[in-house]
Amino acid sequence: MPPLAADERTTLEGWLDFYRATLALKCAELSETHLRTASAAPSALTLLGLVQHLSEVERNWFRRVWAGEQVPPIYEPDADPSAPDGGFTLSERVTREDALAIWEGEIAWARANCAGRALDETVPFGAAQVSLRWIYAHMTAEYARHCGHADLLRERIDGSTGV
Question: Is 161 inside a domain boundary?
Fold first, then answer.
């Protein structure tokens, strides 16, 4: 649970970490097969695909945009070139352990790249500037949306519900 009465930064980081932990919980104790199962037809979305996608999103916002790093995509591009940030397509070469370790590594990079930086600090983004505050808010929304997907996928796999 994020802190109920904290400063802005602690609140923003707390909510983002809450949703990161929620995704991890939705994947916990499932087999590789279950994590690869598209359980809400007709969608091809899987829990493992969500982990991979959120690794790409972490990398994009906290490394490419925020830190200005020139890092390549982690996963092969999705079949749909218009899919934002990619990562949804599964590969037999990437195991559950690989995907979770990569995701945790990207979260560690995100934390390191944001440590000591002010929420109102900005970096170039297209023709505009984007603040760390905006990135935290955007990432929380991104995770919240995908944790909703994860709730449905997990419930369809084994009936598990809740946070």
Answer: no
pLDDT at 82: 56
Query: What's the CATH code of the domain at 67?
Result: 1.20.120.450
Q: For residue 77, give both structure tokens.
A: 């591009």
Structural domain including 29 reads 8-156
How many domains are contained in the chain?
A: 1
CA distance to 36, 39, 97, 147, per residue, from 50 (Å)? 10, 13, 14, 9
Strand partners, 34: none
Is the residue at 45 inside a domain? Answer: yes
Residue 128: both structure tokens together: 């505009």
Per-residue model confidence (pLDDT) at position 112: 98
CA–CA distance, 39 with 107 (Å, rounded to integer): 27
What pLDDT is stored for residue 109 in this prediction? 98
Q: Would residue 163 count as lying in a domain?
A: no
Could you say which residues of the chain have pLDDT below 70? 77-85, 163
